[in-house]
Amino acid sequence: xxxxxxxxxxxxxxxxxxxxxxxxxxxxxxxxxxxxxxxxxxxxxxxxxxxxxxxxxxxxxxxxxxxxxxxxxxxxxxxxxxxxxxxxxxxxxxxxxxxxxxxxxxxxxxxxxxxxxxxxxxxxxxxxxxxxxxxxxxxxxxxxxxxxxxxxxxxxxxxxxxxxxxxxxxxxxxxxxxxxxxxxxxxxxxxxxxxxxxxxxxxxxxxxxxxxxxxxxxxxxxxxxxxxxxxxxxxxxxxxxxxxxxxxxxxxxxxxxxxxxxxxxxxxxxxxxxxxxxxxxxxxxxxxxxxxxxxxxxxxxxxxxxxxxxxxxxxxxxxxxxxxxxxxxxxxxxxxxxxxxxxxxxxxxxxxxxxxxxxxxxxxxxxxxxxxxxxxxxxxxxxxxxxxxxxxxxxxxxxxxxx
Length: 403
What we know:
By secondary structure, the protein is an alpha/beta fold. The protein is built from 19 helices and twelve strands. It folds into three domains: 3-216, Rossmann fold (3-Layer(aba) Sandwich); 230-325, Orthogonal Bundle (Tyrosyl-Transfer RNA Synthetase), CATH 1.10.240.10; 340-402, RNA-binding S4 domain (Structural Genomics Hypothetical 15.5 Kd Protein In mrcA-pckA Intergenic Region, Chain A), CATH 3.10.290. The longest helix is centred in the N-terminal third of the chain and has 18 residues, at 89-106.
């Protein structure tokens, strides 16, 4: 496939100022993509755009990966009903370093350059900025932005000059990178379309140059109609401290059937032939969730590495009865201890009570006698002393690790 064909097949095509996507096929360009350090981790929403960026790189385009140390000090107001709380410089600097580390993971094995827009904004003279940049941009164009209109209407919360100027600042990033790095294309998520156009205008008016924007759609859960990537606990993060590798794997394992084919195209490197084979297997036996299992393993491997992906896949197989507890390594057991209740070695009854799975010895005994308890996959009806690490299961979904 050509780049334009692959972008289309994977669902990465949204709005663009390019008149013909096929111009991307034979003319490698220098492009940039950026993430603001509003947190010290990206989410799987950011990851969707990152996978689009990987596709550009694999077809020979040169990437500049930006972290917005300057824009992060202001905060993107688009889509926000209230003024953002400003972050301290040390917090933003920590977040910048964390995001740069995630770039190294997601784009491992590929050639790329990272930049921080704070490096060029920290020394800009305010009056010079107004004369060289602000003078060339229309207030009418900025006031017409949807997020501005929503914040200045009757009964709204209002908008500060800082947040109002955000698209100016982001636009200047494009102008700076155009002049300094030869960047002629910005790629972004659909929610950044308006901000990105500001840079195109600056390059045209100030430099007399031509630059373009290419955006990828936001991923939507077909079952709920909501933005993809939100769990009951909130956003799904790439940082293991925010979303554990096990919880990350489980999120993908439980994605909706109608959307799984689209998610495979966006979040994995699967090709059309492989996808057809996998989806045929999935369609023939949906309860086995072959498509979700492939998706969960591949995305977890990309973000957390093969060893963690193997570990959480093994843990999942044990919890849901397709693998024996004895097959887990010590590392796997340590990973499991983070995710489920763990108690010290003791009898089954005592473990049930200490873990809260039973409220009393009497209830624990009734559970045993009612064949509602298993140890390492085998039903137990009498209290036994556990002398080595074991997995107790009560009913269908309550697990206790005894170690």
